[in-house]
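User: I'm putting together notes for a lab meeting next week and I want to include a structural view of one of the chains we've been expressing. I don't have a solved structure, so I'd like a prediction I can at least talk through. The sequence is below, exactly as it appears in our construct file.
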Amino acid sequence: MPAEGGPAAGSGEPLASGPGTALLGTLAVVVIALDQVTKALVRMRLALHESVEIVPGLLDFTHVHNTGAAFGFLNSVDIPMKPVLMTAIALAALVAIGLFAMRTGTDEPLTRVGLALVCGGAIGNLIDRVTAGHVVDFVDVHWMGWHFWTFNVADSAITVGACLLILEMVVLNRHVSTPV
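Assistant: Thanks for the context. Below is the predicted structure for the 180-residue chain, given as structure tokens.
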């Protein structure tokens, strides 16, 4: 029997609130705080393009500005009003994520955690776009001549969250909420 005013657990019905919602909100806030604190430390400690070796041959912290999308995609593209466009795209994605999250039931725990991580990461990067017109990236991974895009805590949360969504949908073959 559903709790008064809410859907039954495991029903797959939309949740406005319920068990775990506060915890998921806290997870998103922790991601945002961790992201913003690490970026503030990078801005304070490293000049733009300065690099500090953390794990020799594997990991550096390098202060870069990303004016494009995730992992520097479109970073080198010069288009009019790019900061406004990238912010608008981020806002639209955040609204879509929020709508999807509202339709996710308690029977989809990986989806709910994944969405909390994606939402926290998206907000963390959106804060940068709105306040500075770019995102601060600093985690610089390289190995045996291979070099990955520089990223940040928000990007990591978005990636882990997306992997949880894929795991829930594809690997565990569970139904994910109906389309918005």
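A couple of points you could mention at the meeting. Helices lie at 21-45, 82-102, 109-132, 153-171. The chain is about 50% helix and 15% strand.

User: Perfect, that's what I needed.
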